[in-house]
Structures are given as structure tokens and as C-alpha cells.
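Final report, closing paragraph on structural work. Over the funding period we assembled a curated collection of sequence-structure pairs, and we close with a single example.
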Amino acid sequence: MRKALSYVMFLVALQSFSLGEARGAAGAAGEGVPLGPPVERVEVVGMHAFGEAELQSSLEVVAGEPFDPVRASRSLENLAEFYRYRGYPDVQVEAKYDESRRVWSLYVEEGAPIRIRSIEIVRDSDSPDGLRYFDRIRVDLLRRFEVHPGDIFDQDRVSHGARAIQASLIDEEHIGVSVPDVQVERLGSGEVSLRLKVELGERVTFGFRGNQYFSRNALLALIKEQRALGLGKNYIETIQTRLLDAYRDVGFNQTKIQAYPSERALGRHVTWVINEGERARLDSIEFDGSSAFSPSQLAAFFKEQSSGALGSGIYIEKEMSKAVDGFIQRLRSLGYLGARLTSVQTQWSRGNSRASVVVYFYEGEQTRVASVEVPERGELDESEALLLLGVQPGKPLNLFAFNEGIQRLKSWYRNRGYLEAGIVGEGGESLVRYRDDYRNADIRVQVDRGSKYRVGSIVVDGRSKTGLDVILRELAFQEGEVLTEQDLLLSESRLRRLGLFSSAQVRIEDEPARPGYKKVYVLLEESIPGLIAGGIGFRNDLGARVFGQTSYSNMFGRNHTAVFSVNANHRFVNRRVPLESQAQLAYVWPWFLLPGMTFRPSITAQRTQYETFDAASLVVGGTLEKRLFQRPNLTALLSYNLERTDQRAVDPNNIDNGTITIGGVTGSLKMDLRDDPLAPSRGFFAAVSYEVADPALLSQRDPFPIGYTRFQFRSDYLLPVWRTASWYFSVRTGIERNTQDLSDARVRIPLIKQFSLGGVGSLRGFREQELNVQSLAIRGRATYVNYRAQLDLPFSGPMRIGPFFDAANLLVDDFSLTRGLRMGTGFGLHYLTPVGPVNFDLGFKVDPKPNEDRYRFYFSIGVI
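Its predicted structure, as stored:
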């Protein structure tokens, strides 16, 4: 008790700080205090211990809002309290509002902090066995506390450290863990000592027998979740209930679980013996209560609402209840507004493993829309208004669609400058009037458009490095233009996508001096622009790989990005090049020449081992990129590369050996209609490119000229077929043609630019680049087609399995969509782990030739 009192007295002592002029301001502030002009900027002077972002929750005065003396007073008190809580008891805070500049300034004198002299961790109970174990882990607990002698006494960090100790012990299978007390003793010279009491509880491990549906890891995960919620002395009963609930949630209604505890050297071990029983099945479902729909129609309505296991015929009580509720809502959406559930009766057979369900419900009368009136629509014509509202005369009344339509109607006006547009009587019963015993409904929607607003002055606050024009060009509006809700949201989104700001908000206020105009405040908080990243990986054909990258994303305050990346891999088999590598220095210049155009110059040095030759290249180039349309997502690219390559075939007498120079221009179009460009599950993607290399573009003329054209096309389509399963289809083709005079026998398409296929990216069952024509001199043209199909299926948790079929040909001076196809088939397993994706593909050649490998497997993990 004495220690607890000393802690309370210490907290009281910490209150003896000065608020400067704040205390007087707090006394003066009260109800009826007039508001000042809007604050355009908040600045903090004298703050060194914390960043401005950490103080945001303490300040109630916000840029863009009228100055409120009451909020200002509270902000001073909050700020002083924040400092006290974080270890600065002698802080002094003053504030001043400059109405002419509309800047609210906070002046902080932090004072000397209180520091921690010593930290002691003791056990809350006195069991001798427990004390011996506690002595062994005491040093480790101090490490997990993450607060050290000499640190500032930050109560937030102390609380976080106590929670970290508790969480780590729970993760290590302790039950009944707590950190009930942190005692603080005030010492002289601005120091304190901390004493933490820790209750270890009981260390319990778990094992399982008889489980088949849930894996051991899945059951342990359930127990871990329960540990996080808290376990007491009755933990066996609590965990048993949790496990039974998990089995019932997937349809095992007959599961029996028994616990068998035993004592071991380091604690207790509990073995759960599980008899899962048979999974419950839904034999039949009938509906009683409808005169308007046939049994097959009602069954179809119910099936629409059935998902997960219930849709596969597995009876789960929770899913059944959810599906029945959805069934009733479906009836209401068809105009049966009074539809309600009466009861659900379930009859069990075969030992509670088969369920027959009867759903009793009241259908009621159908309500139809008799008339729809939208007076004073302004710029909106009647047919478009009905389309937005989602109602049509003579059709059943769907109140859910109508409520969504009200929101669409308001958005239509707000996106045309009527930012305060609303519906008269919204939320009441005046919008819909029923008659004829609810068989007919008359709808009258009165729109209150309000004023149409334009953009007034634009104030940007929070930038220190970023140029003002970089920010303004991302805004979807300019001064004097009509201001819409959509433009406000789009502007915020664009600013966030820049990656320069940890926070970006756009707010508006009235401009009293300019009726019909809104003042726009752009409130920003710049983030750290630098990035250092890296990773490791392994692929069975390329060996071990390392990757590193560093970038700076706000060069010269212009949102320009400089990136340096390097990667290297070391093969363990078939190695000719000691270390394959690539290093690239790139620059990203947005808004180059035209709005929305990006320029990406780069220098790349690489050394690569191919199937029959090795190459070392230095490439200097640049790419212009511009999105042509948002919908559809169509992007155009134009690139120029000047490449110096030393190519060396395995055969030392190969005529292609030597150093060559290639200069070429490539134009590309990409259309991406997928739901996610990184991990798509549905949608369409297509890309087409045309490359021209020629001496006129700085390709070499001597000792022999190099020139060619290359056309390539790719089209991918992902089709969802069942829940999380999907089909993947891809068609790819290419044609390359030599364009130089054939009078010189050395003229040909360089090895480095020849098509080749094979491997996990094109033709599985084959080695990487196994399908090639690198032994031939391509003096005319070469073509290929590549077809790919894969069924992507969920397997277990995040693991997915996919049977596949690939086909391709590679022809010289010919082209065919079907002739000469080589084919491979097999399956792949893909699993996402904390260290990166794990991929395994096993491919078989459909018709292997003599002396060819019949199959090929591909394994990779991490960055590849």
C-alpha cells in the first residue's frame, strides 16, 4: 500500500508544471465565445523531443476551420498533458493566434526530462519451482520490455513494454499470465526506478489425436486465439468449448472432445482426443408460405443466398440462418415488403447426420410502384432520374434499391457543383406513400439542390520539400472551376498515390467575401522519401539469388525518383558464368513535357547465361509512358535503347561471337482490365509491341549492319469458375524479321534478340530456352506461338494447386498457329509464406523426342 501511495504522490507531483498563458485562457474560454477567422496554418516552435505527427491527437485547432478559443485552450492543456505523460513534467506551453496571417503558433519549452535509473522484474507469486524458472528467463523478460535504464520515463512505452512481456509469455504457452503492477519510485535528480511484477501462470502444451478435418497447426491456432482473449483456471473447459464450436462451424455436430492432462518437467501437457463424427448433410429444404412463386423459384432464391459449405450441401446452423435471412430479403426486394420469417424446423435422421429443413414464412402482398415524381430536377431529365433512383412505374418496389438510388441521385448533383444537395424529408415516410392496402406506392422525391459552388482560393499546408506546383497539378480542379464531390475525392486519391505524403486531406470552407465559392485547404504531412529494400530467393535452375534496391522519391522537391537496384544469382548446376548479375540506375520523371506523361531514363549493366551462349550487355535508354484512357485502362509506351553486347556462344567458332551495337525504338500498348494487377483473380490483359532496330537508329554498320523488326502480342484472360477457383488462358505470338541486305553472309538477327521458349514462364516440361533456333543464322524471319491454360484451385489454406497445359512452336521463315507445336502438361503447387512465395511446378513433355528429358520440375522460394 505504501508503494502504491508513493506512486500516486509521484503522479500528483508531475502535475506541477506551468502552462504559461494557457491557464488564464482556459478560465476565460466558455460558452458563447466568438469564433475567429479560419486558421490557415498551425505551427509548433521549440519542439524537439517529438514530431508534429505525434501531437495531432492533442491539438483540437485544425487548419481550415474557424479559430475557436475554447478549443485552443483545451489544446494547450492536452499538449502539456501529453508531455507530462511522455516524461517531461516541467514543460511550459504558450500560444498566439495571428489573425492577419491566420497562423496559430504554439511555443514550447520542454524542460528537462525524467529518466529511468533502474528496472527490476519480480514474480508476483512465491512458488519455489516457479522462482527457479523465473530466474532463468528474467534477463530475457528485461530484453522484451524494450525500456532500458537511461531512457526517458515515457509511460506509454512502459505500458507497451508490459504488454509485450505478457504477449510473449502467452506465445510461449503460458496460461494465466499477467503484469498486474508497475511500481514507480521517484528518486532525486529527476530520476525514477521501475519495479514490474509478473505472474507467469502455468505453462501448458497441447497435443491432438483423432483429428482429420483440422490439422494440428489449425487447432493450435484456435488455442492461440483463445489465449489472446484470456484463459483462467478453467482453461480446459474454455478451450474444449472453443474447439467444439470450430467443428460445429464447419458442420460436425456430433464431434466429441476429451482432455487428458499430464504433468511434465517444464509444465503440463494436455492431449485432446477428438472423435469428429460424420459431417452433417442437408438432405432437403422446403418452403411454406408463398402463393406467388413455385417451389423451384423459391429454391432458386434460397440458392442465391447459399454460400460456402451450405452451397455444397453441408448443413451448418449459422450459414442456414444467414441464408434464410437473405431469402426473406430477396422476397422484399421483389416488392413483398411485409415478408417475414415464421419459423425454421429441422428434422434429423441417421444419428443427427442428415437434416431436412422446412422454412415457414409469411409472404404478404406485393407492392408495386404506381407513380414516380421528381419535381424541379434542373439539369436532370426524367428518364435519367428514374434510372438513378432504381424505380420504374408498374414495377415491384425494391426499397433497398430505392435507398441506394437516393444516394446516387444526391451524388449526381454533388458531382455537378451542388455540394450541399439533399433530399427533402429524407429518412422519413414522406418519400413513399402507400395506398390500396400497400399494393401500390407513390414516390415523390423533392431535391434541395442548394447553391452551385466554384473553387475559390486554394491553401496548401504541410509541405516543406515538395514544390507547390507538384501538388497543385494533382488536383482535379483549378480556381474558378465548378467544384464537385468527385473532384475532391479524386484529388485526395492522387495526392496519396504520389507516395510523398503520410497523410493527405482536402477540406473546404465557405468564403464569406465570395458567395458561391469554397475555399479549399490541402492538408499534407510529408513522409520519409528514402527507401532501402532487399531480399533473397532460390530457384532450382538459376540457383541462389540476392536482390537489393535503394531509392529516393522526391528529388529536388519535384516528385522525381532515383532508383539503384542490383541483383545476382549463382547457379549450382550447368554453370558457365561464375555470377549472373544485373545493376540498374534509373530515374523517374513524372509530368514530362505533357500532363500525365512519365519519362524513365536508365543505364543497365548485366551478365546473363543463356541456353547456348553467354552475354554481357550495357544498355542506355529511356521510356516515355502515358495512360491514354482511365476506362478502359490503356497505356502507351515509347522506348529507345542503345545496347552494347558481347555475346559468346558455347562453340568458340560460332560466327555470332563478338561485340555488337544495337540501337532500336519500341512502341507498345497495354490494356489492363484485371481486378488486381499484382494478384489478379479475374479480368483481361493484352499487350502489343513493335520494335525497329536499324543503323539509322545507331545500330552498327560495320563490320556488318544490324537491323530487324520484332512484333509481339500477348493476351491473358482469367475466368472465375467457382468461388476462389479460376481458369487462366493466355495466347502469345511474335514475328521477327531481318531488314538488312543479305549480300553480306554475316547479316542476321543477333543471338541476343532471337526468340526462345521453354521453362516456367512459357512452356513447362522443358528447360529454360530449350526451344530455340540459336544454332541457325536467322537471315529471314522467325515466328512463335505460345498457348497456356491453367486451372487455379484452392487446396489447403493459402496453398493452391493448378493443373496446366502449355503448347508452343518456334519456326524459321514460316508461321503457323498449329503446326509443329510442342506440348507440356502437369500441375503446380503455390504457397505464400512469411519469407516469400513457394512455387513448385512439375511438367511433362507430351511427346518427348529421343534423348530429351521426359519431365522437368521447377522450384522457387522468396525473391526470384
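Residues 1-30 have pLDDT under 50 and may be disordered. The radius of gyration is 36 Å. We thank the funder for supporting this effort.
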